[in-house]
């Protein structure tokens, strides 16, 4: 048996036996072998793809003679295979060929006709060494540029694939929601909250640009660049990595999930503002729960069964751990640096639900401590090592990462005895969590139907809850479970953000919560009755809408496929007809104006021809007029009926270009700049 290989840098093809012996050079330096990429064998020929010549070539596999180009490709060809029955003979036997070796999932061959059974991610072999069973006890830890998950009983076995660049840059805090099979984390480099799933699928290309050609009784299969839709990132087991919150937060070092109520808490520590925010698990109904007298937050933890929120925060001269109800009320200092000199840079807060203790790591003093709620005392866990960086409590044991020996340890959670190294060569750990559905149980006043709250339900004890409204909403005076939006405010966009500010002089009032996943909002509008905000994204060529409370997000218009792969400047103007229930937008690439229903259905070109580059647009649904600007070689302002008829040039003199149009419906005047 032999293995043929290519060396792209030396432009040559070589062959060796499977053990690396009997090395031979088949050919070198031929013009068709200028930048080989992939290789395949069939009978007496060797086939390869070449990037410089954009071709599939074959030659005699023994001496490199009889060279011929069998196929030209439009783009650089990548891999190559030969599809033929003789390439996969069925008359040979191996142990895995007989009923999959009695393995429930994977049968993997070894030497001398031996084999072993193995399991997919988040499973492990049972005692019979044949059957895979669910294994959902996973030790999760984050380090710079990566998140890993290993089997708790076999800590060197990765039970989930590593999540790394570009999905992960600086994963500061980890948490999970077991019943949704989701893992969440905050990334302080990009200031985002992200998540991925334990299960999911990947995007596949159904039709690609590859070519095929029949050769005698075989088919040469060549892969080239394909039209795979962008935007999906593979996560733990093929799940999609999503950005849940990507705006409105700074340096989110604190993060915790209330798995019972279905809420998340995240800190934002900027130059001038330190807050703790709450939202549901989709990032909707974002609102502030703690803002006054808050330093830079380093860590968060929750007790969903008792309705408690914990955080550590610090200034230049004071480090503090506080507690409140989950709506931010009833704040209480548990311990401060004034009373405990070891409380220096407290991080990695974690709640031990069984013993009712709050644990944390003092990174600077090298101590792990806990607050005992039964005695109201702070205790220190005696450790054999003095450089812990992260900790978590699980099944009565303390798991902690230690910088000193770059290892993850496990010991008794009270006295530190029986300290064992669980995993070596694991330094610079930022966060530890143990994924186990069995520890996310229990109920609280928000666990059924969100406590009948229209926005967020925040537990404040084991029997009481508070309904909290999203930013820009107030509690209904007639029904405290409902929320009423602020009636009027100024709404504007700055590149990747949508902003709001009050029309009165009180600029401190927040009127609009952060809207995430905005790329380039070049034009905006709204529908007051339905409470929707609309924006045209010129980077993606889309029109998106979302409710003011962050729910109901929907891309209603997407650009058509064309020869241009990057849809920059496809949509630059947007207007909403709130009476008829239509939207209008300008498309400067194709020099048309289109319309559709509010949900993007029934798309139709309403104005075309005699336009160079339509940009801004406005509608008067009462008068039935459509106004738009043309920023082409002859700038002008035009008007038409809402069906595109009766086109009239309004202004075409003494203007260089028009950036935007505003209408005064009461006096039937238009303003432009």
Structural account:
The protein is mainly beta and 673 residues long. It has four domains: 2-87, Thrombin, subunit H (Beta Barrel); 95-134, Laminin; 138-191 and 248-439, Neuraminidase; 490-672, Neuraminidase (6 Propeller), CATH 2.120.10.30. The chain is 0% helix and 46% strand. It is built from no helices and 58 strands. Strands 4-5-6-7 form a four-stranded antiparallel β-sheet, with no helix packed on it. A hairpin with a 5-residue loop joins strand 9 and strand 10 (115-118).
Mean pLDDT over all positions: 89
Any low-confidence stretches, pLDDT <50, length ≥5?
200-236
CATH architecture verdict of the largest domain:
6 Propeller
**First CA to last CA: what distance?**
76 Å
Q: How many strands?
A: 58
Helix content: under 10%
Provide a count of the helices. Answer: 0
Pfam families: FXa_inhibition, Ldl_recept_b
GO cellular component, one term: plasma membrane
Domain EGF-like: 95-133, 445-484
Keywords: EGF-like domain, Repeat
